Amino acid sequence: MKKDLVPQAFKFKKDLKGISLKALKEHYKLYEGYVRKTVEIRSDIMEVELKEANATYSRVGEAKREETYAVNAMKLHEFYFDELGGNGVPAGKIVSQIESDFGSFDYWRNDFVATGMSARGWAVLAFDLGEKKLRNYGMDSHNLGPVWDSRPILILDVYEHAYFMDYGTNRKAYIEAYLNNLNWEKIDTLWSAYEF
Ligand SMILES: [Fe+2]
Questions:
Q1: 164 C-alpha to center of ligand 1: Å?
Q2: Residue ranges of the domains in the chain?
Q3: How many CB atoms lie within 10 A of CB 182?
Q4: Å from CA of 52 to ligand 1 middle
Q5: Which CATH topology does 93-193 take?
Q6: How far, in Å, from the CA of 103 to the mean position of ligand 1?
Q7: Complete DSSP assignment for 160-189
Q8: For residue 26, how far is its CA from the centre of ligand 1 (angstroms)?
Q9: Contact, 151 vs 127, CB < 8 A?
Q10: Who's near 72: CB < 8 A, 6+ residues apart?
Q11: How far is the CA of 50 from the centre of ligand 1 (A)?
């Protein structure tokens, strides 16, 4: 995460297996928009009258509400794009942690796919710092569903914009393509960098 909130560079040069470069480019434009809006909202918060804060309506209240939407959208897309571009072969210590916490890798995979099929926004494999356990969480919006005290490890975007261009309504095929393009070395590096 860059401190000055500049969008991360677009890294894809060609189609992934089952996810087109065109879809990724359009998706990246949405991500850039979330970064821009995060900067804009935070700038607005510096300008509004804080003493007018009100839960029904106030400029600061609306800005704070949309800040979590934009910030989560920005961060989740950065994980999502960063973790794509691999060969999809599970690797690293994260695999044994998944096996330990979910019983088997296949069980985790089935649960993760079901999370992605049933969520309206995101599926997130996260490590719960309190439970000391990995969990698959579904989120219905960028800012609906994140569980505090947990760290995101693996992020799947299931908003229609992520797959309609390539798959229409066939979300399942998109999720399979996503799994086939995961960079598990990167995911394991992220996992290993967290100090639990
Ligand atoms: Fe997205």
A1: 11
A2: 21-83, 93-193
A3: 20
A4: 34
A5: minor pseudopilin epsh fold (3.55.40)
A6: 30
A7: GGGTHHHHTT-HHHHHHHHHHTB-HHHHHH
A8: 10
A9: yes
A10: 142, 143, 146
A11: 32
Mean pLDDT in residue range 100-116: 98
Q: How many angstroms does the Cα of residue 75 sit away from the middle of ligand 1?
A: 11
pLDDT digits (tens, 9 = 90+) for 172-193: 999 999 999 999 999 999 899 8
CA distances from residue 194 to 127, 134, 162 in whole angstroms, order as listed:
10, 13, 28
Q: Kindly tell me if the per-residue pLDDT of 52 is higher than 90.
A: yes
Give the pair of three-digit tokens for residue 185: 């070395």
Task: Quickly list DSSP for the chain.
Answer: --TT-PPPPP---S-BTTB-HHHHHHHHHHHHHHHHHHHHHHHHHHHS-GGG--SSS-HHHHHHHHHHHHHHHHHHHHHHHHHBSS-----SHHHHHHHHHHSSHHHHHHHHHHHHHH-SSEEEEEEETTTTEEEEEEESBTTBSPPTTEEEEEEEE-SGGGTHHHHTT-HHHHHHHHHHTB-HHHHHHHHHHS--
pLDDT for the residue 3? 66
| Distance in Å, CA 162 to ligand 1 centroid | 5
Q: Per mean pLDDT, which range of 67-71, 133-137, 147-151 is the poorest?
A: 147-151
